[in-house]
């Protein structure tokens, strides 16, 4: 097992205007990655501006007073950097990977986009068509479609339950002025995190960030919160009928929010349940019963809510069986402890995956940004690994009993016929 001296060095600084800068220095690497995260997204949108955060994500690549859309692309290309972005329910993240030596030049372009993007009117109209096509593409992809529908249903009545892409109606109607209003109200210093991973110097990034992000408006975005008594929507099932060969479904169980005291136990639970070829879902649903080609579990964690989700695609005539088997595997954790052999293997899978991920700067720049946002500070990899190593079989069983023993999950599906119901 790696010793603490071999782990990368983490540092966190707060700029004079409130922007946080977090770095993970990994010496000896040629590559590096840098990202700028805004802790405001879909959950902070008004109903009439649904999808604005994602729309703005597209538009930040479309020009500033000093760079046109083509110039932004050409500059990234000319220095060998690869830039991208994504939008989730609680964040928008702009990032780029490059050689460590050109991270300063990469940061210059990203910061110009983030602070000075002008959302040119002609680009708004062109990109509106692109986003509308993205909405249609997601509608046509069964697994993506049912994920989106499930997410909205599971968190119905919660700010997390609004669609990231918006709808054809909101995207078709939103003006450049409303988009700019949304950006100015949310792209604020206290919600901004700069993260960098690779063979880079923390102090030099902090110095550059002070200069490049000095014009960012100060403040904290308004955050939409659910009712104090809010509960996710479980014990319900919805089916969307389509002429298809398979039925795709998600089923979900509530979890405590990100940073909860059970997170290491739940990581081990999820590894045994549905992560990889040695998982219980893979072995029972695919290998033993031939119910599905793809089956897995995942956890989605947010600041004030979270969920365990199970996905599978199967023949419509066996969809109910697949739902029953998946739920049975969850309940199995409540009834019996995992064996020592299974426990040790699951923890080793997690440990190896997290250590191997240190070689991927893009993965690390997302991780340290995410933990800084959700936990208040970047989580050292050694702390995470110690937490996983300490999990016992009894704790896995106890957390399963606490969270799942009396829960009937939500089930949503798409495919031919009537679709599966709740687990029996």
From TrEMBL:
Family: Belongs to the peptidase M16 family.
Domain Peptidase M16 N-terminal: 20-167
Top-level taxon of the source organism: Bacteria
InterPro entries in UniProt: MPP/UQCRC_Complex, Pept_M16_N, Peptidase_M16_C
Pfam families on file: Peptidase_M16, Peptidase_M16_C
Protein known as: Insulinase family protein
Domain Peptidase M16 C-terminal: 174-349
């Amino acid at each position: 097992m790696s010793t603490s001296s071999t782990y990368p060095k983490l540092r966190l600084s707060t700029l004079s205007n409130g922007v946080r800068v977090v770095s993970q220095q990994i010496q000896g690497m040629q590559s590096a990655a840098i990202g700028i995260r805004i802790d405001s997204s879909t959950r902070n949108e008004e109903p009439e501006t649904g999808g604005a955060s994602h729309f703005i994500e597209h538009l930040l690549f479309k020009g500033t007073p000093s760079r046109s859309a083509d110039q932004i692309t050409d500059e990234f290309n000319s220095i060998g950097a690869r830039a991208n972005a994504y939008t989730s329910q609680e964040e928008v993240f702009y990032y780029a990977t490059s050689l460590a030596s050109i991270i300063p030049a990469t940061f210059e372009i990203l910061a110009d986009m983030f602070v000075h993007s002008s959302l040119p009117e002609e680009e708004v109209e062109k990109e509106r068509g692109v986003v509308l096509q993205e909405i249609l593409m997601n509608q046509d992809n069964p697994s993506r479609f049912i994920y989106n529908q499930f997410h909205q249903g599971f968190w119905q009545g919660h700010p997390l339950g609004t669609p990231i892409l918006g709808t054809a109606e909101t995207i078709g109607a939103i003006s450049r002025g409303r988009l700019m209003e949304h950006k100015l109200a949310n792209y604020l210093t206290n919600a901004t995190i700069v993260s960098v991973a690779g063979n880079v110097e923390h102090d030099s990034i902090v110095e550059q960030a002070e200069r490049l992000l000095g014009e960012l408006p100060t403040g904290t975005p308004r955050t939409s919160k659910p009712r104090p008594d809010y509960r996710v929507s479980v014990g319900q099932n919805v089916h969307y009928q389509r002429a298809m060969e398979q039925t795709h479904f998600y089923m979900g169980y509530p979890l405590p929010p990100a940073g909860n005291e059970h997170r290491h136990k739940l990581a081990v639970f999820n590894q045994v349940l549905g992560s990889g070829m040695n998982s219980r879902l893979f072995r029972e649903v695919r290998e033993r019963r031939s119910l599905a080609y793809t089956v897995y579990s995942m956890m989605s964690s947010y600041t004030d809510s979270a969920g365990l989700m199970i996905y599978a695609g199967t023949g419509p005539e066996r969809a109910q069986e697949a739902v029953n088997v998946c739920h049975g595997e969850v309940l199995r954790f409540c009834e019996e402890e995992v064996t020592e052999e299974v426990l040790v293997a699951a923890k080793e899978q997690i440990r190896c995956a997290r250590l191997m991920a240190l070689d991927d700067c893009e993965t690390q720049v997302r991780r340290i940004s995410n933990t800084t946002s959700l936990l208040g500070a970047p989580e050292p990899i050694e702390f995470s690994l110690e937490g996983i190593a300490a999990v016992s079989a009894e704790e896995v069983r106890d957390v399963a009993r606490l969270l799942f023993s009396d829960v009937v999950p939500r089930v949503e599906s798409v495919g031919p016929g009537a679709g599966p119901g709740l687990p029996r």
